[in-house]
Specification:
Structural class: alpha+beta
CATH architecture: 2-Layer Sandwich
Distance between the termini: 27 Å
Oligomer: single chain
Largest sheet: 9 strands, antiparallel
Shape: globular
Order of helices and strands: EHEEHHEHEEEEE
Radius of gyration: 20 Å
Helix content: 10-25%
């Protein structure tokens, strides 16, 4: 089990039902938390599971406007261009940029509690103690495979290993409604989202034994 402390000035854990102008969930989704942990240490021989997310700063929102592009280069155009076609493989920025509003979280601070299970891709020399030592050392040294981010890549997260002791959470308890849990990759051709009923209990989001809805 590990406890990873993350913080940053802004975060955006996008609600999937709001696709044009983005709005954030009140707290990180389990999939976003797992992504932050995997940014510190990923190995095919283990699978991370999020247990709890501790909210340390008050939940505050701020609205900003950002420049986004309206489209993307299609994979079909890339394939046709590789076969000798004359498709344009660029986006004309003046024609594609549009301003959209986003509802962000401001001044966020969390502790992510997680554990891992061994997978069948682990080698004979791999064991839980080895992985635990590696990830603990990487958190203490500030090492990561890629910079962890708070929902969107432009909102990078600072991180460290939680030094231990009680975690000072916000004194807030409320129902957060349905929240994205993770994606089901059992069928690579039909990746589907899963959800759960989220509840904040004295600043702690417990996802260890939650009911996952498909």
């Amino acid at each position: 089990m590990i406890q990873l402390e993350v913080w940053g000035p802004y975060a955006l854990f996008s609600r999937p039902e709001l696709k044009v102008e983005r709005a954030s969930y009140d707290v990180p989704t389990p999939s976003a938390a797992r992504g932050m942990v995997e940014a510190i240490y990923y190995h095919p021989g283990l699978r991370w599971h999020i247990d709890r997310i501790y909210v340390m700063n008050p939940i505050r929102f701020v609205s900003i406007r950002r420049n986004e592009v309206m489209s993307k280069i299609s994979a079909r155009n890339v394939r046709q261009a590789a076969q000798g076609g004359k498709q344009d493989l660029y986006l004309a920025t003046p024609q594609e940029i549009v301003q959209r509003s986003s509802l962000l979280l401001q001044d966020v601070h969390y502790v992510i509690e997680a554990h891992f299970d061994m997978t069948d891709k682990a080698s004979l020399s791999d064991n839980p103690g080895k992985f635990q030592d590696i990830v603990t050392r990487r958190m203490e040294r500030g090492q990561c495979f890629n910079t962890p981010y708070l929902g969107c890549r432009e909102f990078s997260a600072s991180f460290r290993r939680w030094p231990g002791g009680p975690i000072p959470t916000i004194p807030e308890t409320r129902d957060l409604g349905l929240m994205l849990y993770d994606f089901d990759y059992s069928d690579p051709q039909h990746i589907t989202p899963t959800y759960f009923r989220a509840k904040l209990d004295n600043g702690v989001l417990n996802v260890r034994d939650c009911e996952v809805l498909r």
